Every structure is written in structure tokens, then in C-alpha cells.
């Protein structure tokens, strides 16, 4: 049998349909305007340099847990991914699950921030945010939810300051950076990071965008935009598409010195697994992570492979370690319909069981 | 609006009519059993030129990308349509693309879009790096071998010799700096060329695997029956071949070399700019870096001092005055109250950093000194 059975009139019909969708959807695209993201009401409770610590407004009908939960997001991309839209919001789900949610927005570093180190971020900014929340709630320790790179930061912070972390939740967090399927660590293997940072100062967001898009270039730079034609006529779906598009390309530059240490120590030398990692005056030993840990990973994560996250199991010092596997990808774990129903409620339940 | 004879609805209707007319022309050509070159991809281009000028979307990145991919899709359809047997037409098109990859050149016409498609990683690399390169992205493109081809290796040899001429006299150092810049630019161009050549190989491998997939589909009596299904299959194959290639040691080296050589260009460019800035009595990048570094060190020390001061204050507070202890209030609960008061005093909404020690703590310190 011939492998392709498409008649010329079929080809023409498909193209006509495609073109009609494009034409009819153009007006929606032109009218789209600015797409808001970050929908849950929130209050800025602390600012320092470009950092803002937010506290989200809880629904009046839900009794909040007495120990707040601080979301530590990655430096790459923006944290509004956790609160993208009304029906796709991890933050909203956590509030509904009774969590009192805080979030750090790291802001957009500029060239004057080039010499911010991981020590500055973790033992400086993050630590002062934790202190601020502790003071506001008259507590000695709080719950932390670290996401992606923010999860790795949270692990390091918890190892350095275990007395300030009651429960630790890590989401799609790389721990072992040298699993065979880790594309990013493979790509930076021969990159001279010192020269890169010494030359560029801060690392441009465009370079990071290029890296992420090139994980699946033909899908992310090609197929995706043909799929866009399919949603042009549906304003709601179009808004969702554009909101995600905005987030994907909203990549802050990375403070040079932090990038240097993160890529060299974590991606190139895998020190979080192998040992020898120092942040400021602290030697990082995951055995110091003695508080309960919930480790959530995505089964189809192409950015942080599941094995990179699951490596945490054998490294932390806690006896209360739980894993939660999510059947989806790195982004779907925050925004998919399935995630809304399962992930935030599971976090709420797990936290409540431990207080 | 009532005075406006041409509403947005009219405008949209005009666009629909434009495209319908274009497709009607194609249908007539099909009816004549002489499809030839339908020009669908060109039609999309032409349509967008007309539409784009009247829409607030020109320059919209998503729209541009959507049209670019649409063009690619139309081009694939166009090639499939040229002939009564779609399988044969597709094979012919794949052969064309294969030749294009092997020849490291672009064949005019149908394969141009497909070639551009396969080179998307390289294309986005140029776009991403042009924002922080001292010269536009096209500059490197102009240095590619096809641009130099008429002169062969002789140009390269002459260039190498010229760049190795030792500098003399008062401007010796300056000359060497510019020679270095030219050398690192050439090295970067070579690294890009190697990277691109590897992608041509990926393109050819993708074609082979695509053919194999189609053969399998035929053998298993599961033919592809729509344009979109064919396109998706094609994407799937490209990702599969690309995914294997980028996990190879060869790719890691090519990528590392390309980034490292780019940094050498940028580094040398900055160095030259610093020399110019210095000659104009302007701050150099190097000097600004020094300032930023020192400033960050000072801020770090400042935070450490604040933190140490807070700890000392807490320690002092914990040493309760005997007189108050005798009044019947327990030391521990009093200290807790002190600490709580100091935090309440400093906890203002969205404040910047921690406030200074409250007066109450100062009083406590004095009490301790009196002891």
C-alpha cells in the first residue's frame, strides 16, 4: 500500500480550512491586547533591592494553616507561572488547601547585580525573607516549597539552616545533575563558564531562551505555531496560548556570579550529589536536611528528568521522606487541569499531617 | 464610525475574498490537470503583506512565527500536490532536500522552506546572540563559505597571513588588538560553520528516517491520509533525530566550541571598546566591574554587621535586669515580650530591610551597664 494517500482536493481543502481559520482568527489576535498573568490578589510585605516578598490573599471561607508556606521559585523565568490564570494556579490551589502562601519574586537583575553570589541569594535574600515571615507569624520555622532551580536552592538552604524549616517540599527539582538523560548538563560540558561569565557579566535571558527552546526546537519553534492557528478563533484558548508564550520569553538575565557557581558546581561537577559544595561559609551536606521532605517530580519532564529529582531519596538525612509522581511534564505540573486537582491538595494534606 | 465606509468587518471580509480568489485560481489549475506550481506559499506571503500593512500585528513575534511555519506547511503541501501520486511527489521533494543538504547550498523553490525549517536552531542562535554581539547577525552569515566561494581558500590564506603580520611602531599594540579581533571572529565563523554542517547531517538523517517511517506505514497498511498528519510525522522524526544528535559527544563539543569562540569575540570587542572609552576619559567596563564588585562586598559586610548587631542586641536583652526580675515577672516571658515588641515595631508593610534597634533595647542595655 502507498504510504501517503492524500488526494489533491484534500490538500486544497486542508489549506483552505487553515487559511480560513487564520483569517477569521486575526481579529482576535489583534484585539488580544495585554494578557494579564498572576491573578490571585497579593500584598507585597517585604522588599529588598529588586526582590519582593508577596503574601497571597486567602479565601475567607478557608481556615489557614498556622505555619506559612514560602514558595521559592527559580531565577530563570518568572514566578507568575505558579499563578498563571484563574483556573490554572498552583497558588490558588494551595490557598484552597488551607496554606498561607508567600512567594519570592527575585525581580530582573541588571548589570549592577552581576556580583550577587549564591551566598547572597540564599544566606542573604532568602534567609531574610524567611526571618521576615517568622517574625510576622512569631514562629521559629516555616514551610518551604522550592520549584525547579528554586527547589535546589531550598535544599541547600534547608541544609544550611535546618532550624528554620519545618517541612520542605521540592517540585521538579534537580538533585543529580548527571543522569544520562540530562540534556542541559550534557550541553554545558565543554562550555568555558568562567570565560562566559567574565565576558558577559550577567547571562542574557535570550541565551537561556535559546537553550530551552532548543530542547525540542521543531516542536517549540515550528509545530506550536501551526497549533496556534487552531486556537485563534477561541478567545479563551488564544489568551491561554499568549499567556504561556509571554511567560516562555519572559526570562530575566542571570546574575553572573550566581550563574557561574550554579553551572560549574551543579551542572558540571554535580557537587550536590558528590559533595564538596560550599555556599559562603557553609559546606552543603544534604544529610542536614532532617525535616520532613515531600519530593514531587514529573514523569515526562524533559528539563529535569525524574531520576534527577528522585536521587534525593538517598541523600537527605530525614526519616520522613515522601515522593509524589505526577504524570505530566515540567510545565504541566503547574498549569494542567490534572495538576490543579492533584498537586496542591496533596501538598496541603501532606503538610497538615505533619503538624 | 457611521461615517467610515470601511469597517473592520469589511476589512476581514476583503481578506477572506482575497484568499478565496487565490484558492479558486488553484482549483481551476487543478481542473485543467496541470497543477504545476500553485504558489500557495507565495500566496500566503502576499496575503500577509496586504493584511499586515493594515493590522496592528505587524512585528508581532507570535504572528510572524505562525506565518513562517504556515509558509513551511504550505510549501510541503505545494510539493505534495505537484503530481497525481502524493508518495512520488513527496519522494521527489525529499530528494531535492537531500541534495540541498549535501551541496551545502540552497536549491531555489520548494526545498528552501524545508531547509530553513531544519536550520531553526541555528537561525534562533543568530537571533539570540545578535542582541549582545558587536556586529549584526548577518555579518557572520556573510563570512560563511558560500559568500567566499568564488575566491576559494586563497582568500583565507591571505587573510591568515595578513593577520599574522607583526605590529611595529607606536600603534603596535593597537594593531595587534585588531588583528586578534579578526582572528577570533574567523575562529567563531569556523565554529559556526562546523555546527551548521553537523545540522546538515541531521537534516539528511531525518530524511532517511522519514522515508523509513513512511515505508513502515505503507507496509502496515496504515497510510497517512491528511496533510497535517504528514506534517506532524515529519516533526516527530526531526525531533527524534535531533534528540539523538544533541546527546552525542560530538554535539557537546561543537556547541562548546561555538559558545567559547563567541565569547572570545565578545571579550576582544569589549577590550577594544575599553581602550576607546579610556581614550575619551569615559569609564571602562573593567572599571565599572571593579566598582560593582566592591559595592557588593560592602553590602555583604553591611548585612553581616547588621546581623551581628541584632544577635548582640538579643544577647543583651536576654540578660534581664535584677530589679525587674524581683518584681514577680519571669525573665523568660519578659524577654519574649521585648523581642515581640521590637518585631512589631519594625514590621511595617512592604518595608525595605530590617529597621534599627528599638529604644526599649537601648534602655535594657543601659540597665545591664548599670549592673
TrEMBL record, chain A:
<keyword id="KW-0583">PHB biosynthesis</keyword>
<keyword id="KW-0012">Acyltransferase</keyword>
<comment type="pathway">
    <text>Biopolymer metabolism; poly-(R)-3-hydroxybutanoate biosynthesis.</text>
</comment>
<dbReference type="GO" id="GO:0016746">
    <property type="term" value="F:acyltransferase activity"/>
</dbReference>
<feature type="domain" description="AB hydrolase-1">
    <location>
        <begin position="68"/>
        <end position="334"/>
    </location>
</feature>
<dbReference type="InterPro" id="IPR010125">
    <property type="entry name" value="PHA_synth_III_C"/>
</dbReference>
<dbReference type="InterPro" id="IPR000073">
    <property type="entry name" value="AB_hydrolase_1"/>
</dbReference>
<protein>
    <recommendedName>
        <fullName>Poly(3-hydroxyalkanoate) polymerase subunit PhaC</fullName>
    </recommendedName>
</protein>
<dbReference type="InterPro" id="IPR029058">
    <property type="entry name" value="AB_hydrolase_fold"/>
</dbReference>
<keyword id="KW-0808">Transferase</keyword>
<dbReference type="GO" id="GO:0042619">
    <property type="term" value="P:poly-hydroxybutyrate biosynthetic process"/>
</dbReference>
<dbReference type="Pfam" id="PF00561">
    <property type="entry name" value="Abhydrolase_1"/>
</dbReference>
<dbReference type="InterPro" id="IPR051321">
    <property type="entry name" value="PHA/PHB_synthase"/>
</dbReference>
From TrEMBL, chain B:
<dbReference type="Pfam" id="PF09712">
    <property type="entry name" value="PHA_synth_III_E"/>
</dbReference>
<feature type="region of interest" description="Disordered">
    <location>
        <begin position="312"/>
        <end position="371"/>
    </location>
</feature>
<protein>
    <recommendedName>
        <fullName>Poly(3-hydroxyalkanoate) polymerase subunit PhaE</fullName>
    </recommendedName>
</protein>
<comment type="pathway">
    <text>Biopolymer metabolism; poly-(R)-3-hydroxybutanoate biosynthesis.</text>
</comment>
<feature type="compositionally biased region" description="Polar residues">
    <location>
        <begin position="359"/>
        <end position="371"/>
    </location>
</feature>
<feature type="compositionally biased region" description="Low complexity">
    <location>
        <begin position="339"/>
        <end position="358"/>
    </location>
</feature>
<keyword id="KW-0583">PHB biosynthesis</keyword>
<dbReference type="GO" id="GO:0042619">
    <property type="term" value="P:poly-hydroxybutyrate biosynthetic process"/>
</dbReference>
<dbReference type="InterPro" id="IPR010123">
    <property type="entry name" value="PHA_synth_III_E"/>
</dbReference>
<feature type="compositionally biased region" description="Polar residues">
    <location>
        <begin position="327"/>
        <end position="338"/>
    </location>
</feature>
Amino acid at each position: 500500500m502507498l504510504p501517503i494517500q492524500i488526494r489533491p482536493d484534500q490538500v486544497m481543502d486542508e489549506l483552505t480550512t487553515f487559511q480560513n481559520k487564520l483569517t477569521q482568527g486575526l481579529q482576535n489576535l489583534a484585539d488580544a491586547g495585554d494578557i494579564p498573568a498572576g491573578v490571585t490578589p497579593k500584598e507585597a510585605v517585604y522588599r529588598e533591592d529588586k526582590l519582593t516578598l508577596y503574601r497571597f490573599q486567602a479565601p475567607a471561607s478557608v481556615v489557614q494553616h498556622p505555619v506559612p508556606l514560602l514558595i521559592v521559585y527559580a531565577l530563570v523565568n518568572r514566578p507568575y507561572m505558579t499563578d498563571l490564570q484563574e483556573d490554572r494556579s498552583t497558588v490558588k490551589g494551595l490557598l484552597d488547601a488551607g496554606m498561607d502562601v508567600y512567594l519570592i519574586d527575585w525581580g530582573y537583575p541588571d548589570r549592577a547585580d552581576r556580583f550577587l553570589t549564591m551566598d547572597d541569594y540564599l544566606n542573604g535574600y532568602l534567609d531574610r525573607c524567611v526571618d521576615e515571615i517568622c517574625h510576622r507569624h512569631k514562629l521559629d520555622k516555616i514551610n518551604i516549597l522550592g520549584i525547579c532551580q528554586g527547589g535546589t536552592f531550598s535544599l541547600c538552604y534547608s541544609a544550611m539552616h535546618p532550624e528554620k524549616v519545618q517541612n520542605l517540599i521540592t517540585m521538579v527539582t534537580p538533585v543529580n545533575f548527571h543522569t544520562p538523560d540530562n540534556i542541559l548538563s550534557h550541553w554545558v560540558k565543554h562550555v568555558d563558564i568562567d570565560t562566559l561569565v567574565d565576558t558577559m557579566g550577567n547571562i542574557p535571558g535570550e541565551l537561556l531562551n535559546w537553550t530551552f527552546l532548543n530542547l525540542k526546537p521543531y516542536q517549540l519553534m515550528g509545530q506550536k505555531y501551526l497549533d496556534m492557528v487552531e486556537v485563534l478563533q477561541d478567545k479563551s484558548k488564544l489568551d491561554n496560548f499568549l499567556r504561556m508564550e509571554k511567560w516562555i520569553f519572559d526570562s530575566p538575565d542571570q546574575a553572573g556570579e550566581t550563574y557561574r557557581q550554579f553551572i560549574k558546581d551543579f551542572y558540571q561537577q554535580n557537587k550536590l550529589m558528590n559533595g564538596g559544595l560550599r555556599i559562603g561559609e557553609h559546606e552543603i551536606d544534604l544529610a542536614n536536611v532532617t525535616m520532613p521532605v515531600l519530593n514531587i517530580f514529573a514523569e515526562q519532564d524533559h528539563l529535569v528528568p525524574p531520576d534527577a529529582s528522585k536521587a534525593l531519596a538517598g541523600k537527605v538525612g530525614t526519616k520522613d521522606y515522601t515522593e509524589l509522581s505526577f504524570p505530566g511534564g515540567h510545565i504541566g505540573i503547574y498549569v494542567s487541569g490534572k495538576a490543579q486537582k492533584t498537586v496542591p491538595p496533596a501538598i496541603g494534606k501532606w503538610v497538615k499531617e505533619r503538624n | 464610525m457611521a461615517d467610515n465606509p470601511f469597517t473592520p468587518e469589511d476589512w476581514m471580509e476583503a481578506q477572506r475574498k482575497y484568499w478565496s480568489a487565490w484558492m479558486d485560481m488553484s482549483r481551476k489549475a487543478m481542473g485543467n490537470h496541470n497543477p504545476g506550481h500553485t504558489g500557495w506559499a507565495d500566496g500566503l506571503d502576499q496575503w500577509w503583506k496586504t493584511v499586515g500593512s493594515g493590522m496592528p500585528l505587524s512585528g508581532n513575534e507570535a504572528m510572524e512565527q505562525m506565518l513562517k511555519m504556515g509558509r513551511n506547511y504550505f510549501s510541503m503541501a505545494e510539493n505534495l500536490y505537484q503530481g497525481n501520486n502524493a508518495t512520488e511527489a513527496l519522494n521527489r521533494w525529499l530528494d531535492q532536500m537531500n541534495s540541498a543538504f549535501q551541496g551545502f547550498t540552497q536549491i531555489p523553490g520548494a526545498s528552501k522552506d524545508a531547509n530553513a525549517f531544519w536550520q531553526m536552531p541555528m537561525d534562533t542562535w543568530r537571533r539570540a546572540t545578535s542582541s549582545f554581539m558587536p556586529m549584526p547577525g548577518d555579518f557572520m552569515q556573510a563570512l560563511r563559505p558560500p559568500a567566499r566561494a568564488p575566491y576559494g581558500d586563497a582568500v583565507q590564506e591571505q587573510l591568515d597571513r595578513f593577520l599574522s603580520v607583526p605590529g611595529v611602531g607606536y600603534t603596535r599594540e593597537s594593531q595587534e588588538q585588531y588583528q586578534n579581533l579578526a582572528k577570533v571572529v574567523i575562529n567563531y565563523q569556523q565554529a559556526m560553520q562546523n555546527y551548521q554542517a553537523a545540522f546538515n547531517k541531521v537534516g539528511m538523517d531525518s530524511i532517511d528516517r522519514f522515508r523509513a517511517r513512511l515505508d513502515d506505514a505503507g507496509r502496515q497498511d496504515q497510510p497517512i491520509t491528511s496533510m497535517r498528519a504528514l506534517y506532524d510525522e515529519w516533526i516527530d522524526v526531526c525531533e527524534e533525530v535531533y534528540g539523538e544528535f544533541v546527546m552525542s559527544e560530538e554535539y557537546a563539543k561543537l556547541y562548546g566550541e561555538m559558545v567559547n569562540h563567541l565569547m572570545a569575540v565578545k571579550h576582544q570587542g569589549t577590550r577594544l571598546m575599553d581602550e576607546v572609552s579610556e581614550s575619551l576619559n569615559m569609564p571602562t567596563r573593567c572599571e565599572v566591574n571593579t566598582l560593582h564588585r566592591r559595592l557588593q562586598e560592602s553590602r555583604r559586610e553591611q548585612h553581616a554587621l547588621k546581623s551581628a548587631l541584632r544577635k548582640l542586641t538579643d544577647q543583651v536583652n536576654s540578660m534581664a535586669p535584677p530589679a525587674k526580675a524581683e518584681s514577680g515577672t519571669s525573665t523568660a516571658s519578659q524577654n519574649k515580650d521585648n523581642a515581640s515588641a521590637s518585631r512589631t515595631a519594625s514590621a511595617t508593610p512592604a518595608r525595605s530591610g530590617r529597621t534599627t534597634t528599638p529604644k526599649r533595647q537601648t534602655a535594657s542595655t543601659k540597665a545591664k551597664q548599670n549592673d
